Amino acid sequence: MDETVAEYIRRTVLKIPRDEIKMMLQKWGFLSEAQLQTLNFHQIKDNISQEVVQLCEENSANIKQAAALDIIYNHIYQNKRMWSVYQMKKSGEELEYFDITDFKKKFKGRLRSTLKNVTITFKEYEDNAIWIRVAWGTPYKKPNQYKPSYVVYHSQTPYVFISASVLKSNLPLLCQALIVASNYHDIREMELRSHSLDSLKDIVFKRYSQNFQTYTPKLLQEENVEPENADIRIVQENRSEKERIHKLNQEAFGSGPQPKLEFAQYRLETMFKSDPKMDVLDKKEPFRCLVKFSSPHLLESLKSLAPAGMADAPLSPLLTCIPHKARNYFKIREKKGLHPENLVSS
Amino acid sequence: HLATSLPLPSERDHLRPSIDLVVFMIDIKSKYSLKNVETSLAHVDASFFLGKVCFLVTGVGRVNACSIETNAVCKLGEAYCSPVLFCELELEGTRIATAQRLVRMLRICAGHIPGVSALSFVSLMRKSDDD
């Protein structure tokens, strides 16, 4: 077995938390049950990984199998990576039948015709997700297995989720291979990034609970704003205000759990508006400013701002439009016209 | 009665009993909280400041998150001749103890304790080096 393969398997096993190693090796299926029985999972990870490498040696593992183990690890720990969303466009409206074998062949063909040194691995999952792992090399160097790119493609949708490796130069090639393989004619990066792959899927596949405006909101029974057992001796003086805030919040965010995003970034290219007497920034140039909101769970924290009394309701549409517009990166420019208001553009 | 600020909404005036004690809660982590209390104080009738007003500062357990200086709150208490209590709501012990203190004060302010008036009690609460 190649030394580089052995080292790569050893390092991959070391990444896995000790209690999960057995499960992951079983999912991998490369080592037999009998071989797995011989492993002692109660020793330190260094020793476990050495033993795993020895067993792989017995089975003559190659880089393809090692890559398969890496995909399994990254599928389970997908939230450790940062994912970007790309949208593909078809030229016509014809629904073509998706053939997975054809897709794989075209994808590999396209990549290999430009770059001979690549390792390409596919894995399909039950939710119609196709995971692709690509390790990149150069015409003179073997692929770097430690910095691969991951692509997640749901064949029934025009969306691709990419977690690129540090080498940004390979991205155009990857995108090209994707559109060729999937019979689309164009691909563009959306302004949507997050660690939570599932939440990105929720946003673009519209799987989160959205609130649809009804024409007769007054007919709905006023919801109990205080679900917890409030003592009847406590009187809320501002009940109507609390209910107004709750209603506006429901309209803006819906009632279900929010998709998980870690940040929203607004790049402002607007003019600085100050008191003319203050004479600040006399030049008529846009004031460049970057505003970034970060949180372990941005949308839930935005949703709780008004009820907690930390912001006025309704919240700015710049914040509440994030899931609907499927973006968390914004550029805000001046609107050209008589009334200078802000225009959100891409 | 819980309210986010003063004045109280007028639509509930007819439902409200007479008020014996006003406790202004200031979250030490929020400058806005202090500002809100300062604005609300203007809506309190002067007669309340004879022992029927108290300031409760919460969140003092989290030293790293303080946005307001305790000095500023103590000065506020002095300016309005009202006691300032400090407590940490997240700790059950101080929470219960503070609640008991407030209930005792409320009973005095409501006139349930014979021989002790709100005014006499609040002058007892003042630190001796104030005079």
UniProtKB/TrEMBL annotation, chain A:
Q: Does the keyword Nucleus apply?
A: yes
Subcellular location(s) per record: Chromosome, Centromere; Nucleus
Q: Name one GO cellular component term.
A: nucleoplasm
Keywords in alphabetical order, please: Centromere, Chromosome, Nucleus
UniProt feature coiled coil, ranges: none
- What InterPro entries does the record point to? CENP-NAC/CAD_complex (IPR052011), Chl4/mis15/CENP-N (IPR007902)
Any one GO BP annotation for this protein? chromosome segregation
Major localisation: nucleus
Membership in a protein family: Belongs to the CENP-N/CHL4 family.
List the PANTHER family.
CENTROMERE PROTEIN N (PTHR46790:SF1)
The protein depicted here goes by the name: CENPN protein
Task: Say which species the protein is native to.
Answer: Vidua chalybeata
Automatic annotation (TrEMBL), chain B:
Cross-referenced Gene3D superfamilies, in alphabetical order?
A: P-loop containing nucleotide triphosphate hydrolases (3.40.50.300)
What are the protein's UniProt keywords?
A: Centromere, Chromosome, Nucleus
Domain of life of the organism in this record?
Eukaryota
Localisation per UniProt entry: Chromosome, Centromere; Nucleus
Signal sequence range: none
Subcellular location, principal: nucleus
Task: Kindly list the GO CC terms recorded for this protein.
Answer: chromosome, centromeric region; nucleus
Which PANTHER family does the protein's record reference? CENTROMERE PROTEIN M
Record protein name field: Centromere protein M
> Which organism is this entry from?
Vidua chalybeata
